[in-house]
């Protein structure tokens, strides 16, 4: 996938997440959405540096990467209990295919572990892998928008 397309898709996921929070009643669903929104903001930070929209700042990039890793580690707990809300974008496959869902989480963790942030070029290369991990999970476990 081309770097610009990958970054644009990642930023699009972040924008969609922000709109999804309106009217959520279930606290577990809200916690999941908040976690995904945090990940979207972190991806936006990295994506904007990769594209030169914002100045490269290794400390900010490192903070965004650490936050992404922490949120990824929380995914099993956030999606452990099945909770529903009309605003939820989680598909039942999360709970009917827990091994597959866990594998997608591990793919994201591996992508983040391999992420290099020493330059905008490093970030751009890493964003392709991160974007692929996000998309792979969303394709199967998230309601298509």
Rg, Cα atoms, Å:
15 Å
Number of helices: 6
Q: What is CATH's topology name?
A: Four Helix Bundle (Hemerythrin (Met), subunit A)
CATH class reads Mainly Alpha
- Give the CATH superfamily: Cytochrome c/b562
What's the number of extended β-strand segments? 0
| Biggest beta sheet attributes | none
Protein structure class: mainly alpha
Structure write-up:
The protein is mainly alpha-helical and 145 residues long. Helices cover 73% and strands 0% of the residues. It has helices spanning 3-20, 27-51, 58-78, 93-96, 98-113, 120-141. The chain starts with a helix and ends with a helix. 30% of the residues are buried.
Give the SSE layout.
Blueprint: H1 3-20, H2 27-51, H3 58-78, H4 93-96, H5 98-113, H6 120-141
Helix pairs in contact: 1-2, 1-6, 2-3, 2-6, 3-5, 5-6
Q: Main attributes?
A:
single chain; 145 residues; mainly alpha; Four Helix Bundle (Hemerythrin (Met), subunit A); 6 helices
Task: Summarize the model shown.
This protein has helices at 3-20, 27-51, 58-78, 93-96, 98-113, 120-141. The chain contains six helices and no strands.
